[in-house]
Amino acid sequence: MNSEQPTLLEAGAPNAIGKTLGLLGDEWTLLLVQQAILGLTRYGQFKAALPISNAVLTSRLGILTKEGLLERNIYRTNPLRAEYLLTPRSRSLWPVLLAIWDWERQWVAAHTTPLPRMMHTECSQEFAPVLSCGACTRPTAARDIDAVWGPSGSWKRSVPTASTRRRWESDQARGQAGMFPETMAILGNRWSLALIGAAFRGVTRFADFERTLSAPPALIADRIKAFMAIEVLEATRNAVRPDWAEYRLTEKGRAFFPVIATALHWGQTWFLATEGPALIETHRFCSTVFVPELRCDRCTKLLHRRAILVSPSATES
């Protein structure tokens, strides 16, 4: 695979959104890319940095290499030793990781591993990333975006084909890697982000979630229960029909939009369907195709990977 060029997807197969969710809907994938961005390259280094088994580490490194997110390089033949290097595809994931870090930092109290601090070297300040439009630079929220399905877009094609490996409840109980506990409640199940996406598109009623996603009622109920438990959805009553329960995004749920925006942009950059894009987003204020950017909340400058300094967490310093 040429990791410097987008992957062409087969006609009728899961689209760029489905492909993205299949890759990023796994906490170990995100954590391994994060550690690679921080400078780790060797099997032993990843094993020492993360609470991961040999079998899972070997499996994930194989997947990341196959999908072009890491490049396996043999640096010694006797004995055989390999290192895993970043590619353009994995380097460009840093906005997603930064958006996850910011959301978890602001909205999730419990982490088994304290989150690091981030400093913007261009202004020498600790900062928060601000989602902005690449065309007009204006700060952007979900309500500022008009989104329609593109030629390869549909709910069916946007769901990954692989079944989820872990239920959210057991994941929380075990803790596992723990760096992104509630992010994985949204990304780590093959239907979860589809349901959150539907909520961002204005779906609120149980029957409408079921019909829109063509998903079994038990699955919809499970996801809604999980999202209410972490307070990204809340149950309300319809103003006209009080007997109708509605499930709406909370402030915490709406704040997850930068993660969704940066992840979808990454996916549609690196995975191209022959029919065309899966989702077309337009920024209402400048009427251009929305390209997400992250800017520093202190100096408003565009953030770049090399201008972000990762520091130990406040509890560790």
From TrEMBL:
<dbReference type="InterPro" id="IPR036388">
    <property type="entry name" value="WH-like_DNA-bd_sf"/>
</dbReference>
<dbReference type="InterPro" id="IPR002577">
    <property type="entry name" value="HTH_HxlR"/>
</dbReference>
<keyword id="KW-0238">DNA-binding</keyword>
<feature type="domain" description="HTH hxlR-type">
    <location>
        <begin position="13"/>
        <end position="112"/>
    </location>
</feature>
<feature type="domain" description="HTH hxlR-type">
    <location>
        <begin position="177"/>
        <end position="275"/>
    </location>
</feature>
<dbReference type="InterPro" id="IPR036390">
    <property type="entry name" value="WH_DNA-bd_sf"/>
</dbReference>
<keyword id="KW-0804">Transcription</keyword>
<dbReference type="Pfam" id="PF01638">
    <property type="entry name" value="HxlR"/>
</dbReference>
<protein>
    <submittedName>
        <fullName>Helix-turn-helix domain-containing protein</fullName>
    </submittedName>
</protein>
<keyword id="KW-0805">Transcription regulation</keyword>
